[in-house]
Design a protein that fits this description.
homodimer, 7-stranded antiparallel beta sheet, 6-stranded mixed beta sheet, 8 helices, 23% strand, globular
Chain lengths: 423, 423
């Protein structure tokens, strides 16, 4: 079962997907040489949007939380990829301390943690899950809906090493995006911390990611001789916005207008009849809190109190001051009349699967990763590594291959972004 | 559908498989450090025998010819692994020249070549298949039983580079074991040749492989604190045997006796009631030609003319002069009353699948890879990377994990063997 495009696959994207197929050897070779030059994050997930005329990443998560949503048939791919990552980063490792988010009541998230633990175990590592929650003072079993159990344990710090009891891990793997800041516990460790602490939302900025992505998309477009806009959303950024005090609104409105104008020119060039929209969201932070869809600059001037409150705060009460204005990409994939948005999962530089967020209550121009949102995950039914040049460019394996290519472009941007953050 | 062990899984192997599970992190860490020290061949397949009290490799093929027999569900694993290999060996590569065996009428083999071509293509390489056959003077399409077509093309040599027309490959991948010798065409190339020419049967010797395996098995057994014999067949070798002239028979009989005596001691130690047997086979060569099962030294003295003719020659008319005497390992796996022998496939250092050779007409002490043999391939139904310590040691995923471990020991031995051959 795969969502279908509700728009006829039109000129630009069909051409793009065709070029992905015919240029596959060049693309893969290009990626190989890029991975020689850049250090890939341990893992990542990328939200894509497919409008039929454009296929672009809109968010890159360095602490992916949906491993439970992947097709279980591809678990061996995750294991291979995790083994490759461990080989490169820490071949001598025996034990990994996995530090998840503090969501002890989110069954879906906890299943993700358990799946991640299994992947690491089956890669041949001893794995213990250490919690940052102060109330976890002893090993605590949490029953999961599927009958399994996840054990959370308190983390000890001795000098600059973390441990759990007498378990002394070589590596600390974060599945916690540090939205609440970097805890003292994690600072200055002698153990390898993956991804690096700088990848957390205390220091990470979406605008830096998409600035790196701009360069990646330019290089890739030059390789394929295509318009980079086909895989790259316009964006701009406003600093020092205060939604409560209503400062920074002029900057925001002006930049919204600039992005919309650039989009109008592109829509005209490609004959796209839809209304352009931008997504305004916090430059740091996650979970789709503080996100709005805007079709006209005036909308960001006329926010009511409720809207301003919503925009002002993201996860863990982080105040929003830097705001990203990102070209909106319609998602024209639908299944049973619900909109669907692909999320691609990568471990090391390998695409290991993905799923669709399927949401019945949302429009094609809305963010599908919103708080309290109950999307239905639909695992990719086939791998992203099986392009077939003999079938149509938008045939399922070919569409998935295209998703894997664009997701890897975002992964490459994340690599460059992390290099800059840790330099 | 998985063959079952006809013998109750007894003490030694059950213990062994249990240790594989409990020691998985140590095992995987050990392999990781080994792969840092040794260069793994591009690909390999390993024939294993599982007697219920022993699990050991009996043959390691550096030019595996059964990719068509693997479970198609695991194709993405092959692709990942091939990408890893290419990344390490030749990241800049765009094109590969694949050189198969000269079997243009063996449909099974040709399907293997096509599958291998697809794996390489889906890894992102341009692939052309070049034939060593003199009658291939232009591109020749061969129709395969499944409706697909394999195109064989003539290979050109200009200076020290091979090409096909204007296709100038970076890498030459051999799927030809060079039993007929190393053709002049392949000597002294500036292109990377995989595996190296020294891996062909002109220079390779099984006894060197199993000598390297001895060391690997010793180290591995020390790691796990087990008797290395549980994963290692005894062997010895006789040079200058001439089956026609009946010279070297004394050496052969004496060594057969030595191996049988060592086996009797081990069988007594472990309470094994079966009769020990040895396999006598050519030290160089493949396809199971020139192979006999021997339970008493006298049998190699009383060969009739037909048996001597059979033993004297292997594939491509190679004369046998060096003979390997290898401890026979019973295969006590059966399916529908046919004996079954697992074959594990690896690309780079990753286990990518495998299949059983299922043979109705053979005994548990006979070689299943014989000329004219019509085994039925039965693809492994699950991956070899999903051990589950919570289920029984001989549960299917755990048995497959054990196969993957022992196959990788043989792969490591092949790595060391190739290092010595190319030193």
């Amino acid at each position: 079962m795969v969502p279908h495009l509700t728009t006829a696959l039109k000129g630009p994207l069909l051409d793009l997907e065709r070029r992905f197929l015919t240029e596959q050897p060049s693309i893969e070779r290009w990626f190989r040489t890029q991975w020689l030059e850049h250090t890939v994050p341990f893992y990542a997930s990328v939200d894509l949007r497919n409008s039929g005329f454009k296929l672009a990443p809109v968010d890159t998560n360095l602490f992916p939380g949906g491993f439970n949503n992947l097709n279980p048939d591809f678990l061996p791919l995750c294991i291979h990829a995790a083994q490759s990552a461990i080989e490169k980063i820490c071949p001598e490792a025996r034990g990994v301390l996995l530090i998840p988010e503090n969501h002890t009541r989110n069954q879906f998230y906890l299943q993700n943690v358990l799946m991640l633990k299994r992947v690491l175990q089956q890669s041949g590592l001893n794995v213990r899950v250490g919690s940052l929650l102060p109330e976890i003072t002893q090993a605590t079993d949490i029953a999961l809906a599927d009958g399994s159990t996840l054990t959370l344990e308190p983390i000890l710090r001795k000098g600059n090493r973390l441990s759990i009891g007498d378990f002394d891990p070589c590596v600390v793997l974060l599945n916690n995006d540090l939205s609440a800041g970097v805890p003292e516990l994690l600072r200055g460790l002698e153990q390898n911390v993956l991804p690096p602490l700088q990848g957390g939302w205390t220091t990470r900025r979406k605008s830096k990611h998409f600035a790196a992505y701009d360069h990646v998309a330019q290089d890739f477009a030059a390789l394929l001789d295509i318009d980079p806009w086909l895989v790259n959303p316009y964006f701009d950024v406003c600093g020092e916005v205060d939604f409560h005090a209503r400062t920074g609104e002029d900057c925001l409105a002006a930049k919204v207008d600039v992005v919309l104008q650039k989009m109008r020119a592109k829509y005209a060039e490609y004959g796209v009849k839809d209304a352009p929209f931008v997504i305004v969201k916090a430059d740091a932070g996650t979970y789709g809190m503080g996100i709005m869809t805007v079709k006209d600059a005036s909308e960001v001037r006329d926010l009511n109190r409720k809207q301003r409150n919503k925009m002002a705060v993201v996860k863990e009460g982080m105040q929003v001051s830097d705001v990203l204005i990102q070209e909106g990409v319609y998602t024209f994939e639908q299944i049973n009349e619900a909109v669907a948005e692909p999320v691609v999962y990568m471990v090391d530089h390998f695409v290991v699967g993905g799923f669709y967020r399927v949401h019945t209550g949302r429009g094609t121009d809305e963010n599908l990763n919103a708080p309290g949102m109950h999307f239905v995950p639909l695992a990719f039914e086939s791998s992203c590594t099986l392009p077939n040049p003999h079938s149509a460019p938008d045939d399922t394996p070919n569409r998935f291959y295209a998703y894997g290519v664009v997701a890897r472009l975002a992964l490459l941007a994340a690599s460059i972004e992390l290099e800059e953050l840790t330099a």
